[in-house]
Amino acid sequence: QYGLEKPRGYNVSFHYNPHVEYHHFGSSHPMKPWRLTLTKQLVLAYGLEYTMDLYEPRPATIDELEVFHDREYLSFLSQVTPQNAKPDDPAYLSFGFGGESNDCPVFDGLWNYVSIYSGASMSAAQNLNNKQSDIAINWSGGLHHAKKNLASGFCYINDIVLAIQLLLTQNQRVLYIDIDVHHGDGVEAAFESTDRVFTLSYHKFGIDRNGYPFFPGTGNINEMGPTDPANRGKGHSLNIPIDDGIDDEQYKWLFKTVTGAVIEKYNPTAIVLQSGADSLGGDRLGRFNLNIKAHGFCVETVKSYGRPLLLIGGGGYTPRNVARTWCHETAVCVGTELHNELPTHIPYIQAFQGAENGGGILYPDLHNTKRHDNLNTQDNLHKLVTQALENLRYVEG
Ligand code: ZLS
Ligand code: CA
Ligand code: ZN
User: Fold this and answer.
1) CA angle, 235 as apex, 218 and 162 as ends, to 5°?
2) For the structural domain made of 12-394, what CATH number should be given?
3) Tens digit of pLDDT for each residue in 128-160?
4) CA distance 310 to 271
5) Ligand 1: which of 93, 103, 181 to mutate, judged by most atoms within 8 Å of the beta carbon?
6) Whose CA is nearest to atom 17 of ligand 1?
7) Domain segments of the chain as ranges
8) CB 39 within 8 A of CB 139
9) ipTM of the complex as predicted
10) Neighbours of 354 (CB within 10 A)
């Protein structure tokens, strides 16, 4: 009140159980838990561990997971192994395992893996609830496709839903934002009948030349949750469908305009940001053309609203760039800038060196790895924003 208050720093907590790293989906599978090792190495090499509270959370228990998931699904998931799995067992297929796409394989240590990443998201949510931190980070979470009785799109347990359920014990309104290149369908579905959670997902949407929709095929602009006026969840989902090749300036404008409008209108008391790194340029599965700092701009924007923030990972299939992005975003949270030259004493430094791996710097130009022409015109994006803002008519703060 005397004009002398010092700028308020943020208390950041980092929730990470290193045992998550040692799990493998299979050699050809794009999801590589090893990207988390790379992320951790960068975070440590820049000394960011001294600027945050570090936690090594315990794995979640089956009872904790049952708050969202069905008992039968959990008991199957907790018992299935590559040795005892029967791919022609109807339960196996009905719970989303194997199948034609084999997106969700049964691998060694599967139950360990899912309980570790879920435990970390729950520990992060609890830290926000206890006011021990302003921003809590779990890069191993963000598995947004899992349903209560179904594994889908590399996701077995929906740690985001579990974390939001914890936040709801202390918050009247929680905003969920999802910048993974895929639609956050599992989180949207879990909270479709409540107005206490608003879900906002930005993603690639459309049919490919081969006739397949981009996974999971949902999330058009007109999908706003239930249509029944008696349903409290009506209008409490917003989907932003985007075409291939969107660039930094377009995405930043879109994100800032739409997210800003949602935050101002809904006025959440806590925010969860799924920061999937498959929206970067050069991602093995993604279609967008974003650079690391444009992706990080989303974290900066959300942070600037000063609400308790749970920051979680998600997709990201070019591991060196996933690590760069999540390290950068960790620095954004604690409020420091990192030098572009990577510290040389990092284990696995080779993963970042050489022209094809980003030349030993933190912020390589990912436009150089562009494989997707930009199909988003300014005109399309303006129409999209107009429609998005119109979709907020059912929202009250
Ligand atoms: O959001 O596109 C699909 C499903 C199919 C089934 C039919 N076949 C012919 C095409 C593929 C529709 N699945 C996606 C899932 C993407 C999940 C994203 C998760 C997240 O980032 C959050 C963590 C998909 N895209 C690419 C693959 N699956 C995929 C690529 C390569 C392989 C290897 C392993 C397994 C089988 C061969 C696989 C899946
Ligand atoms: Ca998304
Ligand atoms: Zn994704």
Assistant:
1) 70
2) 3.40.800.20
3) 999 999 999 999 999 999 999 999 999 999 999
4) 6
5) 103
6) 153
7) 12-394
8) yes
9) 0.96
10) 10
